């Protein structure tokens, strides 16, 4: 009996030692700082543990010793923030599309406190994070000073891979990503569906005098959306506007136009994972039913109630879709089913630029763990 106990104690000590070494290796790998971005090298990081750790966990009666999920949470958990903590400084290195916005917007619009935005590059050494917008990135306009060890470089992009090209210099450069992708470090989708404050309320559908509408500026006959439109209009009337049809709609008229349509063609210009844009969220806000063309329905339903939209993939042909829209036009009860979600939720659109900056600043304020994006091109364009 004493021999068995001694053997078990030795086994436990050995396993505990192995796991401690593995855990220390993980911490060293994740927290080892990179000072100069010019000389950054790719670091091979374990997903969780190496084989010796996994084998140790598989030994009898040891599976409860260490919870790998707990290790992951330890590396990524938010740290407590108090009102007395110094402000987190986010430097906007280049304005997205050259459009400036109010630097004090985080507190006034998003109720985010303790974040200070600046575009003063003299603050480089003091900034906790720097925001870079993909379209404006130029090799001759990037920081050349050594990066402070604590500083996070944030890559921001809202264009799909088809509409923004990869660049070899982007790998091993950034710490965080801020995009519409659900697997981004800082998720900033094109819009949100949020619970109503105050509980369930009745929604009044706006007055309709148009059946199917579409506004498009970028017409390309090779796009799937253009080809689908050509088929659909053979079976149902579509009121098409925008620069693509030489019938522009002004900003002042846009809301009234969309809200007057029973259905709106929310067709994306390219089809990619999670690429669900304002083309969907604006009609949802304005009381029209989006007919979507983009990623699969399941992807949409990760962000939007399934009964709030119609997906072209739900129908074998454009003719079948047209027949369904005509049926809904003739049956008010069926049509109203697409608005039941409005009793509990509201739709809103993202403010491009300000929301990215504020959420990015709030993220680096709360999460201090080391993070590096080694293969940005492979993740986004792969």
Low-confidence stretches: 1-10, 21-75
Fraction in beta strands:
15-25%
Please identify which CATH superfamily of the largest domain we are dealing with: Glycosyl transferase family 10, C-terminal domain
CATH topology name of the largest domain? Rossmann fold
User: Number of folding domains?
Assistant: 3
The overall strand count is: 13
Return the CATH architecture of the largest domain.
3-Layer(aba) Sandwich
What is the distance, rounded to the nearest whole angstrom, between the alpha carbons of the first and last residues? 58 Å
Helices and strands: which structural class? alpha/beta
Summarize the helix and strand pattern as letters: HHHEHEEEEEEEHEHEHEHEHHEHH
Number of helices: 12
Reported for the largest beta sheet, the result is: 6 strands, parallel
Strand order of the largest sheet: 2-1-3-4-5-6
CATH class of the largest domain: Alpha Beta
Overall average pLDDT = 84
Radius of gyration: 26 Å
Helix content class: 25-40%
């Amino acid at each position: 009996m004493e021999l068995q106990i001694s053997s078990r104690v030795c086994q436990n000590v050995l396993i505990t030692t192995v796991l401690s070494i593995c855990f220390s290796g993980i911490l060293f790998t994740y927290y080892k700082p990179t000072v100069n971005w010019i000389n950054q090298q790719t670091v091979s990081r374990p997903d969780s543990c190496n084989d010796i750790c996994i084998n140790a966990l598989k030994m009898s009666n040891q599976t409860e010793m260490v919870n790998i999920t707990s290790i992951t949470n330890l590396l990524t958990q938010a740290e407590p923030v108090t009102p007395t903590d110094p402000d987190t400084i986010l430097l906007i290195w280049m304005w997205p599309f050259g459009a400036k916005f109010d630097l004090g917007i985080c507190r006034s619009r998003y109720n985010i406190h303790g974040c200070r935005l600046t575009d003063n590059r003299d603050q480089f050494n003091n900034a906790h994070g720097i925001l870079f917008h993909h379209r404006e990135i130029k090799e001759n306009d990037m920081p050349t000073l050594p990066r402070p060890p604590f500083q996070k470089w944030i890559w921001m992009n809202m264009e799909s891979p088809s509409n923004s090209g990869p660049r070899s210099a982007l790998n091993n450069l950034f710490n965080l990503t801020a995009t519409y992708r659900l697997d981004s470090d800082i998720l900033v989708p094109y819009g949100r569906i949020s619970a109503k404050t105050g509980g369930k309320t009745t929604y009044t559908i706006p007055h309709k005098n148009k059946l199917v509408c579409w506004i498009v500026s970028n017409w390309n006959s090779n796009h799937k959306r253009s080809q689908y439109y050509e088929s659909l209009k053979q079976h149902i009337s579509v009121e098409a506007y925008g620069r693509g049809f030489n019938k522009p709609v002004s900003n002042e008229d846009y809301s009234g136009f969309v809200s007057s349509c029973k259905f709106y063609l929310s067709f994306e210009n390219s089809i990619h994972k999670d690429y669900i844009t304002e083309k969907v969220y604006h009609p949802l806000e304005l009381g029209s039913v989006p007919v979507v063309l983009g990623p699969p329905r399941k992807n949409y339903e990760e962000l939007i109630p399934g009964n709030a939209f119609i997906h072209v993939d739900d129908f074998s042909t454009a003719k079948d879709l047209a027949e369904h829209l005509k049926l809904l036009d003739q049956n008010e009860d069926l049509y109203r089913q697409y608005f039941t979600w409005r009793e509990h939720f509201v739709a809103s659109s993202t403010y491009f630029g300000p929301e990215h900056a504020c959420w990015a600043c709030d993220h680096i304020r709360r999460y201090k763990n080391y993070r590096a994006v080694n293969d940005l091109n492979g993740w986004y364009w792969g």
